[in-house]
Design goal:
Elements lengths: L13 H18 L2 E3 L15 E3 L2 E2 L3 E3 L1 H9 L1 H13 L1 H8 L1 H6 L4 H14 L5 E13 L9 E8 L6 H15 L11 H19 L6 E6 L7 H15 L3 E4 L1 H4 L3 E2 L6 E4 L4 E8 L11 H12 L3 E3 L2 H6 L2 H6 L6 H4 L3 H5 L5 E3 L5 H10 L4 E5 L10 H10 L2 H4 L2 E5 L6 E7 L2 E21 L2 E19 L13 E3 L1 E3 L1
Parallel strand pairs: 4-20, 7-8, 7-11, 11-12
Antiparallel strand pairs: 1-2, 3-16, 5-6, 5-17, 9-10, 10-11, 13-15, 14-15, 16-17, 17-18, 18-19
Helix pairs in contact: 1-7, 7-8, 8-9
The site of magnesium ion (MG) has 3 residues, from loops.
């Protein structure tokens, strides 16, 4: 152990605390808990992904109830199966759940739906699909109400679920620094599990195309990504542990690629004959990733190819907030899951704004705006509307626009204490709340429900933020990486 200091901020002296900050920040540098640095001024411009600094982190592990932690893990496989079942019987997804969201958000959700329809019409060139899912939860325990529902799902991420590798390393850091005092720090093998998922998909592809000798995993990345270390880590594990080559490409670069005429293989390099066996998206989840038709062309080329996609456009659409809300309608879940009761136990109240009773829903939210969150069909943090912004938006939205938003009950997590570090300095010492994400990996076959090449729950991420912060992302600058201390 590096230190014997007690692991709560209240009982740690200032000198000990400063020592700990230095140890922990150095640990981050030594073991690669790093993100691309940004300008110190208000522009917060990224300095390029090779100029790095420690990722924002919590000095201490964050208290989390053991029973809720276990429930979150238990939910993993039922969600793996649910995503696949909904996407295999795509009528509900495309013809019902997402229709109004596509109309209300034609330039993004609408284009994804058109792409899905196009794949449906032409037929899938690949029946295997890799899901690297991250189901995010918060504890719900409103003050003074006696209500304690355990965990409620914030959202299910089906594309570019990030921070698996850095989270595994944060767990190790907390164990090394605090493991003598905090004994209930669960291991976190998210990094290994995610690598195994991608490697398994790669091996399945090799079996399908034994004549292809030169196969790579493509990691689809954003130009100017600040979270590239989390991605590189995975790339290096894939290379060293599994012998799987990884190439990084933007959507615009993929637009230049061709198919092999005979079998729809995605040719990455005509000279060497390198083909894509697995295409793993760490980009493509926001309209900002598609500044022109070129990027849409890149997406479309991948989607029609024989590469195993992580995710394909159907899995991607499953992650839409609108789909999350539509799944809460009575009678829907049992159509797709044999574990509907377990899944429903973590559903927060979600409301559509495109039903006949939409005025009642709007009035309910306008009456008590602090109890609700207004969400568009967006990913990546910073898009939700709260309080006055929610009121303003609800008052001015058109009918079309309403279809692309949902209203969600505001989850009210209990607070605990935390010390939050950015760039080697304590930037917050006080009450914090947290969000637990659990990584599920599924490699399934659209042509045979029996063929399940992988179905696992592999690890977690715990993000901590001050109680005053509504938004949540680490990359978006709101939250700090932590690990759970089970209580
Ligand atoms: P995104 O796709 O942008 O990550 P989320 O649904 O995860 O969208 O919302 C972003 C953040 O907003 C979450 O990480 C969480 O901190 C906060 N948040 C989202 N929904 C709720 C909710 N219903 N109650 C409380 N906080 C929420
Ligand atoms: Mg989120």
């Amino acid at each position: 152990m590096l230190t014997t200091s007690a692991s709560t901020s209240a009982t740690t002296s200032t000198t000990n605390l400063n020592n700990l900050v230095a140890q922990a920040s150095s640990w981050c540098t030594s073991f690669g808990i790093l993100m691309g640095a940004r300008e110190l001024d208000n522009t917060r411009q990224p300095l390029g992904d090779l100029i790095v600094e420690p990722a924002p982190f919590s000095l201490f592990p964050t208290e989390f109830p053991q029973s809720s932690f276990e429930t979150a893990y238990e939910l993993g496989k039922p969600f793996n199966a649910l995503v696949h079942n909904v996407c295999s019987q795509q009528d509900w997804l495309l013809d019902e759940a997402i229709v109004n969201a596509a109309q209300g958000d034609p330039d993004f959700t609408g284009r994804l739906v058109s792409l899905a329809r196009d794949v449906e019409a032409k037929g899938r060139a690949q029946n295997l699909v890799l899901g690297l899912l991250r189901s995010d939860y918060m504890l719900h325990k409103p003050d003074g109400t006696g209500d304690d529902t355990g965990i409620l799902q914030v959202e299910l991420n089906t594309i570019a679920s990030s921070f698996g590798c850095l989270s595994s390393k944060i767990s190790k850091m907390h164990k090394a620094l605090h493991g003598d005092v905090d004994t209930n720090l669960p291991p976190n093998l998210a990094d290994e599990g995610i690598a195994k998922g991608i490697a398994t998909a790669y091996q399945e592809y090799q079996k399908q195309y034994p004549e292809s000798k030169n196969i790579a995993v493509v990691m689809v990345v954003q130009p100017g990504e600040t979270n590239s270390i989390d991605q590189r880590d995975l790339e290096f594990v894939l290379k060293t542990k599994y012998g799987v080559p990884v190439v990084r490409k933007t959507l615009a670069e993929l637009a230049q690629c061709q198919y092999r005429a005979n079998n729809s293989e995605l040719l990455l390099d005509g000279d060497s004959g390198l083909v894509a066996g697995v295409v793993y998206y760490r980009a493509g989840y926001t309209p900002d990733d598609y500044p022109s038709d070129t990027e849409w062309k890149g997406r479309s080329i991948v989607e029609h190819s024989s590469a195993i996609k992580c995710p394909d456009v159907f899995y991607h659409l499953f992650g839409a907030k609108k789909v999350q809300q539509e799944l809460t309608r009575p009678g829907i879940l049992p159509k797709f899951s044999t574990e509907a009761t377990l899944l429903e136990s973590c559903f927060a109240k979600l409301y559509a704004l495109d039903d006949d009773n939409y005025e009642d829903v709007i009035n309910m939210a306008l009456k008590d705006p602090h109890l609700f969150v207004l969400k568009p069909q967006r990913e990546g943090g910073g898009n939700n509307l709260y309080d006055d912004d929610l009121v303003r938006a609800l008052r001015t939205m058109t009918k079309e626009e309403r279809g692309a938003y949902i209203i969600m009950q505001k989850i009210q997590p209990p607070s605990t204490t935390g010390v939050l570090i950015r760039r080697g300095k304590i930037v917050y010492n006080g009450d914090v709340v947290c969000e637990l994400g659990v990584f599920g990996i599924t490699l399934r076959d659209y042509s045979s429900s029996e063929n399940i090449a992988m179905d696992e729950v592999v690890g977690h991420i715990l993000r901590t933020k001050s109680v005053q912060t509504d938004e949540g992302g680490v990359a978006a600058g709101y939250a700090f990486l932590s690990s759970p201390k089970l209580v």
